[in-house]
Amino acid sequence: MLASISRLQHDQNPRVSVPAYLASLPCALLTLDNLETVLNSDSANVENWLGVIAQISHVSLLITMRGSTPPTTVRWTSICRDPLSPLSLSASRETWMDLTSSEDKKLDARLAMLDGLPLAIKLMATLDHAATPSELIEMYNAEKTSLLGIDGDTRLKSLDVSIRLSLNSRTMARNPQAMDVLSMLSLLPTGLLLSSIGDVVPSMDAPRANALVLVKTGLAIREKDRIRCLAPIREFVMRYHPLRPGPLAEGRGYFMRMTDEVEDIGTEKGREVTAHLLTEFSNITSILWNFWGERYQQWMLDVSKESLTRATQRLGDFSQFAFIGDCAELLEYACTQLEREGDQGNAGMCLSLIGEILSNQMEPEEACSQRIGEIFRMQTKYEETIGLLEEARTEFRMIGDRLSIAQCTESIGNIFRMQAKYEEATELLEEARAEFQTIGSHLDIAQCTRSIGDLFRMPGKYEKGTGLLEEARTQFRTIGDRRGVAQCTRSIGEIFFWQGEYEEATGLLEEARAGFRTIGDRVGIAHCAYNIGFVLHQQGKYADAIACLTGARTDFGAVGAHRAATECTETIDNIRSKIARARQQ
Question: Of 369, 293, 375, which Cα lies nearest the Cα of 334?
Fold first, then answer.
């Protein structure tokens, strides 16, 4: 083809005549697209020929190819040695808008599903110019990658064809176990540490080498010390190449065992455990969803079902603790399955966790919103949560589980507290605490005491509130719950602040922040930083206040507490306005 384009004689050897022709030109740029096609058919000769071209000093060579390993016979400039990264969200949006004017509030969600894969973005944007991104999301959820190929059967017009080209390459054929790594990665949204692949699939030979084969063929990307597949490739592989039972069981066991680490939160290992589970949260959730989807099958052993139920509940506990993700949908699905199996106890536990997670997503100030629509929405959410907890309490009464009944009562009391229904909240929390004392559940006693103490953080009741919080803090110390100690210390510090005792408040809040740092509780750290910033603001220490509030804003944003982050910004703006007015006077 090159000889024909260059109008060379057909009886000449193009491997000789093309380099000679290029050498005769003053300068030239030779561009070779989709080079992996010829490399797969005759790698050695193609690489040698490219080496000859590279020796011609006034000829520049530009190639496009799948994968991460360009021909080694050419000395490539440093910018070309690394594979291209997926498009950022902003670049994806620009690409989309260049191809279509279709846009609505779901556009970013649609682009996030395509994970920065240029061909997928192009095919989706040109699929139906009349469809909105919201409509395209519904279509893609139903048909996945097969939707992006209805107008053609070439690699540039069909995503499925493009992916199959890489799957059918010689490199993949020479490394059959790489397919198991790819099928495993299809279940893991955030991919894997390269160093952990052997632990995830211990039966595999040369796991890292097989993983790097995927990078070489363009089926996976490497991000520092991790490897992952882009979302459209994951969808394709899950649909057409599901993981074999052996490696699947190994991978499920590996990620479900991670949830055992939840038991270490609140100990010296808390910071390390929290960081690890935050990194792997999406992967664990995906694995659990996949496993629940097969739970109904007759071959599943009871021990496997028990492990799945326990892992799901522990992930719900972590989601509630770390304010990350939303396990409510997974727990709801699990609850439905458990009820079908007649497992009322675990079904009730899942319902209770859903109620706790929903209540954690509510902030007290939301109930005081000035917007009628917002008030109605939040009240509806409160009532929904209370309904779930009441339902769970009924389930527990049927099986005589006194501890779980009391825990549901406590949760309902805490929701009433957030609704400012203080009398109802106090009554329920006192009822729950009395039951915990009868049972002898010391952690639950301490938590109820702290919640009741928080109810008395108001003018005229500060002394009683401080006494209850001091009592709870002592109980938490006795049982070694450092998070509970830090929470009580923070609440006591807030009482001192409201009483205008700023020095004492700052000392207690700093102590609480140090406690949260020890266990890696970023939400607790952020709340303390916000409170300290407010104290400094009241003391006129504006620069220090802005520094504290800026740190709090960063931490709130990182855990998805956007309302709190916005409050930090507003307080910072108020301080800066106050400074500006003072300078003008």
Answer: 293
CATH number at residue 558: 1.20.58.80
Residues with Cβ within 8 Å of residue 547, at least 6 apart in sequence:
533
State the alpha helices, DSSP H only, in 480-501: 482-498
pTM given for the model: 0.64
- Token code pair at residue 450: 């702290």
Sheet holding 192-193, edge to edge: 192-193, 226-228, 221-223
CB burial string 565-585: b at 16+ within 10 A, e below? bebbeebbeebeeeeeeeeee
Residue 50 lies in a domain: yes
What's the domain range around 113? 89-163
Tell me whether residue 205 is in a domain: no
* DSSP-assigned letter for residue 251: H
* 283-341 pLDDT per residue, tens: 999 999 999 988 877 677 888 889 999 999 999 888 876 666 668 889 889 988 888 88
- What is the pLDDT confidence band of residue 150, given thresholds at 50, 70 and 90? very low
Apex CA 232: angle with CA 230 and CA 238, to 5°? 100
Clarify whether residues 101 and 38 are in a common domain.
no
User: Which residues lie below 8 Å from residue 47, measured CB to CB, with a gap of 6+?
Assistant: 39, 71, 72, 73
Name 260's Cβ contacts closer than 8 Å, sequence gap at least 6: 314
Contact (Cβ atoms closer than 8 angstroms) between residue 31 and residue 63: yes
Domain stops at, among 118, 146, 163? 163
Angle at 214 between CA 209 and CA 216, to 5 degrees: 90
